[in-house]
Design a protein that fits this description.
The protein contains eleven helices and 14 strands. By secondary structure, it is of the alpha/beta class. It folds into three domains: 4-103 and 310-320, Rossmann fold (3-Layer(aba) Sandwich); 108-112 and 183-301, D-amino Acid Aminotransferase, Chain A, domain 1; 135-180, no CATH class. Strands 13-12-9-10-11-14 form a six-stranded antiparallel beta sheet. The model is unreliable at 325-334 (pLDDT under 50).
Length: 334
């Protein structure tokens, strides 16, 4: 039976839904997108849209298993950090109905979600990180860089120039992680792993311009020392599927790991377009195609210029976007 793709918490992840839809359509599969609200723009890029309860809702797991069963979902792609812990208790039930979830183990996920735990893991396994200070340490020199240990992405992270500001941030975020300020190029590395935790390929993209914690201009660069390090880290940590590892890198200092997001990132479309081709390779992994393990040619120098785009929808479109309860048509493989 053909196995479709479901992208959850799709929100405004238009480029990601489009990339999966291209890959799925080429393989005779369908792409579904799900969200809580009907005005999530990425719903309109999928073959069909599903309404799912919020992940903290008591009926979330039941609804998700039912949707994957009804719509023959073979690959579930979570895109929200907050959703991932709620998925863990449902993974076995989803597997029983033939759905693979791009989600690492509970241990690996907990390390990725706690930056202090990530620092300790990296130190224990020989991966460099920026100098990190104890939770109650009072700097003698500024600037420093601070971020909530439990935060995701760039939320609440930034340069701190005074003791007063650091004290105020610690009042707001008791788990504040304080590190030395590093004035070196920052990279996001898109890391593709197989479903057993073996690295397949990594693509480094330099964060040229950043706004609100997200890169709005980034460029693919060949930095073998960085991508090789990230692939080793992914294997030791037990990542699966597509991940984004943020790091500093310079020829003098080498790679220093900052953060790991065990999911597609906001600008991962650049790595996909540059040749990493994660959506297609993940689908081929599920199909047992050994060719996905061969590294792809990467277009180094390819640059992403991100911008907003308006989409206009009618009132009827807002109301009628979600498919009815009956399943999509399913066909048997020849």
């Amino acid at each position: 039976m053909r196995r479709n793709v479901l992208i959850t918490a799709c929100g405004a992840k238009v480029a990601l839904v489009r990339a999966f839809r291209r890959a799925a359509t080429a393989r005779g599969l369908r792409t579904l997108a799900a969200d809580v609200v009907a005005d999530a723009v990425a719903l309109r890029e999928a073959d069909a849209a599903l309404r799912l309860p919020r992940w903290s809702d008591p009926g979330y797991g039941e609804a998700l298993v039912a949707a994957c069963t009804e719509h023959a979902v073979g690959l579930l792609v979570p895109t929200a950090d907050a959703e991932m812990p709620w998925l863990l208790p449902v993974v076995e039930r989803l597997s029983a109905v033939g759905t693979t979830v791009l989600l690492p183990s509970a241990r690996t996920l907990s390390i990725c979600r706690d930056k202090r735990a990530l620092v300790e893991f990296c130190r224990a396994h020989g991966f460099a990180v920026p100098e990190t200070f104890d939770a109650d340490w009072v700097p003698t020199g500024f600037p420093v860089f601070a971020r909530p240990a439990q935060g995701q992405g760039g939320m609440g992270a930034g340069r701190v120039d005074t003791p007063a500001l650091l004290a105020a941030l610690r009042e707001i975020h008791p788990d504040l992680l304080v590190q030395a300020y590093v004035d070196e190029p920052e990279y996001s590395v898109d890391l593709l792993m197989d479903l057993e935790g073996r690295p397949l390929q990594a693509v480094a993209r330099r964060r040229v311009a950043v706004r609100g914690g997200e890169a709005i201009v980034c460029r693919v660069e060949r930095v073998d020392a960085l991508t090789d390090t990230v692939m080793r880290l992914g294997e030791v940590l037990g990542l699966v599927g597509h991940n984004v590892v943020q790091a500093f890198w310079s020829p003098e200092s080498g790679p220093r790991i900052i953060e790991i997001n065990p999911r597609f990132g906001g600008a991962s479309n650049l790595a996909i377009e540059a040749g990493l081709d994660s959506p297609a390779r993940l689908l081929d992994l599920l199909a047992g195609d050994p060719a996905v393990r061969t590294p792809r040619a990467i277009r180094h120098g390819l640059t992403l210029l991100r911008y907003g785009e308006d989409r206009f929808v009618s009132e009827d479109d807002i109301e009628d976007i979600f498919v009815a309860a009956e399943p999509l048509a399913r066909e048997s493989e020849p």
